[in-house]
Amino acid sequence: MSHDFWRDSGYHLLRPTEAGHLGVTDTFLRAYLNRPEVRPVEESNAAERQLHTALLANPREAVSVERLAAVGDADAIETYRIVLAFRDRLVAAGTVEGAYLELFANPPDPAMGEPPVPPLFYDQLVQVCVRHILDGTEHPLRARAGELLFRPQKVTVNEGFVMAADAETVEMYASSGGFGSLGKLIAEAQTPLRTIELDVLSEDNAEIYWTRDSRFDTVVNLNFAGDGLDALCRVLEAWVHHFLQVEISIQPVQQISDERWVWHIGLDPEGSRLLNDLYNDVEVGEARLARLLSLFRLEFREAGDMRPDIAGRPVYLAMAMDEESTLRLKPQNLLVNLPLAPRS
Questions:
Q1: Are 151 and 122 in contact (CB under 8 A)?
Q2: Dihedral sign, CA of 73, 75, 77, 80?
């Protein structure tokens, strides 16, 4: 049975290309123009309303500096600059994948007056790509693990269990006065009679994910050799293959015991800093090591896909939470930092 999940991601507004990527459509572009930050408000002038109407009719229409200035309101003008610059990147690339890679190859340059890309837009691109990669999956744990690529997680380590819950969901519960800490949320989530809609997924109950996929209210266990960490490895493998057409294998490891360690990649900022220090024999205190959630060994299935001078050597990965117990994966790290062989 095929499951249709993350229905509000915008995935169904895109058109698959012959190459298997996600072609940008006018309908997808209109979704950005219909965001509440962009839609005209009561105070909007006639020029802004006309501009918005014209862009809905033709979301690829060029907008001159003079036409934008006629909007009048400085905040509205800046919002349009951000959205239109992002739109232009999508249109120029033609596919979501192409635009995503281009954002890291040629990021916005403030010195050239280029507006920034909001972090939310990066996350939205990742979500539709992961949705595409996982289309047709029968593994709910992989869909839940896929959330880690575009939604920050709050992590708790308690009695040997490493649990990750959606950070926004945790904040919602905490701010509602129901629960003040993730530890209490996890404790409640593992009791037989739960009073909140928050469950720890396992192979035994994972099917419940399909009815709650857009609520982001399930917890994944990231223990070594566990089902959750295995699911994340499979998602990361598919992520690299989809973008780079390279077959890799990723497996968790408990430590790096390799005198010929030559390459590493952090899956998040904290993991990057930690691996850099370990590689350079910089003293790493117990507090930082305690934030390390997992190490991984990545291997290329075809040696010819790897940079010739280090072909056959493993790439080590690290995943770590920050001082606030938040995990923020940067999936682009795997795409831009792999030691790939030169391509013609």
A1: no
A2: negative
Cα–Cα distance measured from residue 229 to residue 164, given in angstroms and rounded to the nearest whole number? 11
SS3 assignment, position 229: helix
Closest by CA position to 319, among listed 288, 282, 278, 291:
291
pLDDT tens-digit series, residues 183-225: 555 555 554 433 345 789 998 999 999 999 999 999 999 999 8
pTM higher than 0.85 for the full model? yes
Strand 199-201 and strand 161-166: the pairing is unpaired
The residues near 317 (Cβ < 8 Å, ≥ 6 apart) are 250, 264, 265, 266, 267, 271, 295, 296, 297, 298, 334
The residue extents of the domains of the chain are: 11-133, 140-221, 227-336
Residue type, 177: G
Q: What would the pLDDT profile of 120-137 be if each residue is shown by its tens digit?
A: 999 999 999 999 999 999
In DSSP terms, 296 is beta-bridged to: 252, 317
